[in-house]
């Protein structure tokens, strides 16, 4: 397993996501919750445009090139509209309940570094409908369209004989495809703040 501080995703699943979303053919990626950075390092050695963000640096580990340490609720690597894909698979903030301020700030930060037509990708357990609906609800406040995709190596793995070496991998991804016009970082945060305030008012009225 590739260890982050959130959902565990195997290297095979990570490679499947990267292949389906064009990372192996030039799309830039920010991997949030990248653990020890092994997968990010593998891709960077292939001259792919991949960066990582991990909440806590391993106590005994030396800094790894291309990997920043910090929370997505505080800051993220890169300028606004600088990545084609953001993979959000770890950090403790991911475990927060829906519409908690820290989580919404993190989503706004991650969304703001996406280019127009960029994708925010959130791997989830296929059988956890509650988790899927949580992400659909929160992402719906942001500009773009949402899909839940069931990815599988399937016939492609068979035709390339990849299954002989790495198995047939499957992963479920909640996918926010941001709109085609630029949205400022300020606007991402305005939308997040309004959603948090609306949820607070709803809870107070209950």
UniProtKB/TrEMBL annotation:
What UniProt keywords apply to this chain's record, in alphabetical order?
Answer: Methyltransferase, Transferase
* One GO BP: methylation
InterPro entries attached here? Methionine_synth_MetW, SAM-dependent_MTases_sf
A Pfam family per the record: MetW
- State any single GO MF term: methyltransferase activity
Q: Can you say what this protein is called?
A: Methyltransferase domain-containing protein
Lineage at the top is: Bacteria, Pseudomonadati, Planctomycetota, Planctomycetia, Planctomycetales
């Amino acid at each position: 397993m590739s260890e982050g501080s959130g959902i565990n995703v195997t290297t095979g699943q990570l490679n499947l996501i990267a292949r389906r979303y064009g990372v192996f053919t030039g799309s830039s990626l920010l991997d949030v919750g990248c653990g020890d950075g092994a997968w990010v390092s593998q891709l960077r050695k292939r001259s792919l445009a991949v960066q990582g963000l991990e909440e806590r640096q391993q106590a005994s580990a030396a800094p790894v090139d291309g990997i920043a340490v910090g929370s997505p609720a505080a800051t993220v690597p890169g300028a606004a509209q600088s990545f084609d894909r953001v993979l959000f698979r770890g950090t403790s903030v991911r475990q927060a309940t829906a519409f908690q301020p820290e989580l919404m700030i993190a989503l706004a930060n991650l969304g703001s570094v996406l280019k127009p037509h960029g994708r925010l990708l959130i791997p989830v357990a296929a059988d956890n409908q509650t988790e899927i609906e949580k992400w659909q609800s929160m992402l719906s406040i942001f500009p773009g369209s949402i899909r839940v995709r069931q990815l599988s190596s399937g016939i492609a793995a068979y035709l390339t004989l990849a299954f002989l070496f790495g198995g047939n991998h499957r992963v479920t991804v909640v996918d926010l495809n941001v709109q085609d016009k630029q949205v400022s970082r300020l606007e991402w945060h305005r939308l997040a703040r309004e959603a948090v305030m609306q949820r607070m008012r709803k809870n107070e009225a209950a």
